[in-house]
Structure formats: structure tokens, C-alpha cells
Amino acid sequence: MKAIWFDKFGTPSESLQYGELPKPAAGPGEVLVKVHTSSPNPSDVKKRSGATAPALLDGGYIIPHSDGAGVIEAVGDGVPASRIGERVWLYQAQYGRRFGTAAEYITIESRRAPRLPDEAGFDVGACLGIPVMTAHRCVFADGDVKDKLILVTGGAGRVGYYAIQWASQAGAKVIATASNPDDNTTCWDAGADIVINHRDVNWPETLLSATGGRKVDRVVDVEFGENLQNVLDVINVNGVIATYSSSRNPTPTLPFYRMMFMDITLRTVIVYAMPEDAKTHAISDIEKALTAGALKHRIAQTLPLESCAKAHEMIESGDTRGCLVLNMDTN
């Protein structure tokens, strides 16, 4: 099968290889999926660079990427044969194991290959795992959001874009932050009620002016360490901060007593460590939303599998808005 792999850390061009690898066979509890699309995420890029999981290569070469979509071609023992031919999306594919979705075939636990409704294309299916499931967890982990005031920082980002949609469709009033007119439009289009510029040093004052002094109940945050002080200026007592990244300040200092006296809940979110019931909840809501056409998606660019290095470079640039999709069918 055609595949992308790396056996050393480094830049995309020096580490990612393209060629032929053996086609896998489904083991017990697994499905064999003919992959149509694979989507890299920032976490995949960090793994490849060696910035995270430094022991990753101890077992041999890695086929990258956690997210993708395709069709089940065969099943292992314990998996109903009725799943053969089913369109599926893939998540958590390259977590705790070496072989991800950047290949023409993958074997994976049956439960990590949920059904992809006919209403959604394989390109959309490749974007569901990390972005949509992370957003769902951030929005719903702490209960119903109806009539809540929710702040989504970086609302035009991969996760933020879906967090705005989940929250607004569930009855919340959503404030998003963005930094340019195009991103502002993206946030409005996703369902934000208010959009403010997070590059403005006085954005907390701008937010409170826009809400008439009402503070937010929950925050979905893309840069925890960098945003924390400003977030504390706009969040209510008993508020919740759900954060999934702190790349610019990976070791932030917490103002413990300020947060304690506000009874702030800090929730850190990563798909891999979500409880299984939370994953099941997200998958169920995703299927309903896709079937109803309720979620909007942004595919920044579709590239052939052999252009995987270019896709990683685009993510590292920080200039790409929306998901990047590698398409096996163009090879």
C-alpha cells in the first residue's frame, strides 16, 4: 500500500517518507479500513518534530495522523461482518500505537471507526476526530449550556470554529475572539453573537462593554497561559475554563488564590484521554448533526497523500485556516 511514514524526528521534508508498506490485516476486535482521506492536526505535527512523545520511535517507524475516513473492507474476530462496506470516520488512530491514517489502509479498533453518514463526504469525515470531538468536550463536559454566556477564544481556529457551532446550536450566547476581518466573518458565520479582537490589549473591557457588564459563564480557550489573566477579568464566579492548548506558554503560573476565591473550575481537554462515555456522547451528537446538515466545515485545501510534508509545513506556518485533507484517491 502507499503510505507516509517517519523513522526520525525533524522537519517535514527531512523526516516524512512516501512509498510502499505492507498492507495490514484486521486482528480481533479490529476493522480493516480502505482510507480515502487523512487529516493532519497540530498534535500530529508536534509528534513528527519530536516536540512531544520523544519515545515514539522506540518501536519502529510511524505512520502519522489520528484522523481520517474511509470504508471498512474486512473485519477481525468479534466484529460483525455487517460492518463490511460501511463508510466510517477514524479518530485516535495514532495514539498509543504506531500506525495512523496517512496510508491507503489501516487496521483499528472497531469503536474508533464510527459510521459516517451518507450526508457527509470523506473530506468532512477526516476533520471530525480532534477538532470536532475536542470542541464538543469543551462545550458540554460541564453540563447544559442553554442560556449560558460562553467565550470562545480563537474562534476561527480548527476547534474554536466548531465550539461556536456546538454552543450556539445548544442555546448559548457566544462571544468569540478573532484578530482580522476574515476571521471575524468566520466567527459570525459559525454562530457567534459577539466578536472581539484578542489583539486589543483592552479586550476584556471591550467584552464587558458589549455584554452590558455581564461576565461569561464558561470559556473555551485555545491559549490558556497567554489568556488566563484576561480570562479571569471576564469570567463569573463559579465559571469553567475548558482549555485544549497552551502552546505559547506551556508552563503557565496560576494565580491560585484568585482562582480559588472565584471557585473557578479548570478543565484540560484532549481527545485521547476523554472518558469513553464522553467519546460516545460526542460521536452520537456528531452523527445527528452530520445527518441533519447542522455543522459547517472548512476544508482549507485538499492535497494528494504524497504532499503530506507540504501539509505539515502549512500547519507549522500558523497561517492555515480550516482543515487540511490528504486524499488517497488522487494518487
Automatic annotation (TrEMBL):
Domain Enoyl reductase (ER): 10-326
Keyword Cytoplasm in record: no
SUPFAM superfamilies: GroES-like, NAD(P)-binding Rossmann-fold domains
InterPro entries: ADH-like_C, ADH-like_N, ER, GroES-like_sf, NAD(P)-bd_dom_sf, Zinc-ADH_QOR/CCCR
GO MF: oxidoreductase activity
Signal sequence residues: none
Protein keywords: NADP
A Pfam family reported for this protein in Swiss-Prot or TrEMBL: ADH_zinc_N
Protein's recorded name: Enoyl reductase (ER) domain-containing protein
Organism: Hyphomonas beringensis
